[in-house]
Amino acid sequence: MKEEKNIWIDSVMNSHVGREVLVPDSSLFDRIILQTTKVKTISLRQMGMVGIAASVLLLINVIALQNINTPTTWNASDIAYENEVQLISDYNLYGYE
Questions:
Q1: Can you spell out the DSSP letters for 44-78?
Q2: Which residues contact 78 (CB under 8 A, 6 or more apart)?
Q3: What 3-state DSSP class applies to 17?
Q4: Cβ atoms 80, 86 nearer than 8 A
């Protein structure tokens, strides 16, 4: 005799007895195949919009590249002055000359 705590397992396992087996619709497979074989096309209008968007982005990039102001020559004093970094100071902090 099985323990009472394991009786529920038998009742769950036997609960499907007497139920009907589900049978899918006969045309279901045909409808799935029909939907997956449809060819998707891109209209001429959509291609034109993509072309216009690409042209606008290219134009913006060209204008941005032409407007970049980069200095042509750099020397050490310009870099130190702009970054406010000085390697040598004249503060005489320790009293030495």
A1: HHHHHHHHHHHHHHHHHHHHHHHT----S---HHH
A2: 71
A3: coil
A4: yes
Q: What is the mean pLDDT of residues 1-14?
A: 76
Q: Is the distance from CB of 87 to CB of 80 less than 8 angstroms?
A: yes
The pLDDT confidence band at residue 48, using thresholds 50, 70 and 90, is: very high
- pTM passes above 0.70: no
Residue type, 28: L
Contact 2, 10 (CB under 8 A): yes
Quickly tell me which residue has 């099985």 as its tokens.
2
Tally of residues, the chain: 97
- DSSP output for 23-51: ---TTHHHHHHHHHTPPP---HHHHHHHH
